[in-house]
Specification:
alpha+beta; Alpha-Beta Plaits; 7-stranded mixed beta sheet; transferase; Leu/Phe-tRNA_Trfase; Leu/Phe-tRNA_Trfase_C; cytoplasm
Length: 226
């Protein structure tokens, strides 16, 4: 079972009172494990402002991107590609984060503080990676935070064609259990690429309601070896 860290000293307030027209709902606080978990349980996630010395930004999108577990778009070619990879969980978490943080990637946002914070969450059993391997090499993957029935995806990468999609397919299949109807796969925003994979947008209020239901169910066996 994940280890519960000391509680945060910060308050994220009542999500029902967040600005209904702004994805950015807070600034400041810290990236301690207890703070991160409190944020996710309130529907928030952090992102650096991009300016040196500026506080951390916390977002709760007005329109949230989620992937229905029965809505992943799996083409025939992806099914064929999946046979060429081995999907693993939590065997190379730091490597996945580092690949997602590659400064050569456009619109990179994962800095040293974010990296260190999620490595701590991983050590406590809250953050996980799903990886696609081929011929002993890490070809792609994703990482995120699992709290009960919530999986909050943070980032994904690929070094070979379809590798990140194979990792996502492995994640979705691992979340399809007896609690699948109440699980919530959060991807933050619905980009055109994610929309092509089946991601949809739901209103903040709907997301928060689904989040509370998701937090009541057990963590998926994919993350605990069950």
């Amino acid at each position: 079972m994940p280890a519960e860290p000391p509680p945060t000293r910060w308050s994220f307030g009542d999500p029902a009172r967040y600005d209904p027209d702004d994805d950015l709902v807070a600034a400041g606080a810290d990236l301690e494990p207890g703070t991160l978990l409190a944020a996710y349980r309130h529907g928030l996630f952090p992102m650096p402002s991009g300016a040196r010395g500026e506080p951390m930004f916390w977002f709760c999108p007005v329109l949230r991107g989620v992937l229905p577990l029965d809505g992943l778009a799996v083409s025939r070619s992806l099914r064929r590609s999946a046979r060429d990879f081995e999907v693993r969980v939590d065997t190379a978490f730091a490597d996945v984060v580092d690949a997602c943080a590659d400064p050569r990637r456009p619109q990179g946002w994962i800095d040293g503080d974010i990296r260190a914070a999620y490595l701590r969450l991983h050590e406590l059993g809250w953050a996980h990676s799903v990886e696609a391997w081929r011929d002993g090499r890490l070809a792609g993957g994703l990482y995120g935070v699992a709290i009960g029935g919530l999986f909050a995806g943070e980032s994904m990468f690929h070094r070979e064609r379809d590798a990140s999609k194979v990792a996502l397919l492995g994640l979705v299949e691992g979340l399809r259990d007896e609690h699948a109807a109440r699980r919530l796969l959060d991807v933050q925003w619905a980009t055109p690429h994610l929309a092509s994979l089946g991601v949809v947008e739901i209103e903040r209020s709907a997301y928060l309601a689904r989040l509370q239901r998701a937090l009541e169910v057990p963590e998926a066996g994919i993350f605990s070896g069950r």
